């Protein structure tokens, strides 16, 4: 099947917005309007003063409402993104040993972080092939169980739950970076539900946020009181103390906070997590139904119950050059549908985050059919 590198897609087929990246993600126009309005009142002002602290407070209150956080849970935030949080958690939440589920790039990275910590025992890592997911298992000596709710690299989603037989004081840490605000969750089934805001929250990176249970807050305080050396920037207790004052330890990006707050307000006004989960399910369903009906494309994740509703990965037969297809789409204003680089598959990765209009997903699929000659 031949794809012309300079092929033009008719304007009538193109989506209204061509951003389908897995992060950073599409930012809604209303968020940019909120940023413009904050230009003279917030940007360029001190993050220790009431205007910015009120903004942080609004984010914390909005996330508590969005996730229907149980009493005693606190929204904690810090600078550095999810990558920094893996080090924060290695220093401040793992007492002796962690168990990780590794079924893609990001679960593996957290496992690497705890494995490198010289004050921790070697981590227990349960793996499965890309496109599948393993399950956690109770294990003696493990005090933290960790896995991604959504593996951004492969489009596999995993349930959030407690582990039968685990030690009563063991914590469950869920990497929700690409899941939060787009997939349904009961945060009471976790002790730390953490994420960065550049996916469903359609903001920029460089910030981590998490909903912490009372048990996680107690663990952080207990470890902080020991003689374990913890760099100030990676001190979880410092982040907690500052968050309770509606601020961060060091200067955050105010633009990130403004656009994040605007997105959280929109989600809550639109119907909360129920609205968000239904919208992403609609968009993802269109992709999977299209792929299942195609004679050249198939969903990469074979088990229906493991397929993500916020990151869809679609394999193509060898007759379709997916890399060239992505290049043609990009030339026509449809961007960031390339596969995760380390998978090395002949596939497209299409984000279906909550900001993306389901009808734009349908338009994207029509464009793909047109380019490969099946329109």
Layout: helices, strands, pairs:
Blueprint lengths: L28 H9 L12 H17 L7 E6 L1 H12 L5 E5 L2 H12 L7 E4 L16 E5 L1 E2 L4 E2 L13 E5 L16 E4 L11 E6 L1 H11 L11 H8 L10 H17 L1 H22 L3 E3 L11 E6 L5 H10 L15 E5 L6 H14 L4
Parallel strand pairs: 2-3, 2-4, 4-7, 7-8
Antiparallel strand pairs: 1-9, 5-6, 8-9, 10-11, 11-12
Could you describe the 3D structure shown?
- It is a single chain.
- The protein is globular, with a radius of gyration of 21 Å.
- It has helices at 29-37, 50-66, 81-92, 105-116, 214-224, 236-243, 254-270, 272-293, 322-331, 358-371; strands at residues 74-79, 98-102, 124-127, 144-148, 150-151, 156-157, 171-175, 192-195, 207-212, 297-299, 311-316, 347-351.
- By secondary structure, the chain is α/β, with parallel strands linked by helices.
- Helix 1 packs across helix 7 (254-270), helix 7 packs across helix 8 (272-293) and helix 8 packs parallel to helix 10 (358-371).
- Helices cover 35% and strands 14% of the residues.
- It starts with 28 loop residues before the first helix and ends with a helix.
- The strands form three sheets. Strands 1-9-8-7-4-2-3 form a seven-stranded mixed β-sheet, sandwiched between helices.
- The model has no long low-confidence stretch (mean pLDDT 96).
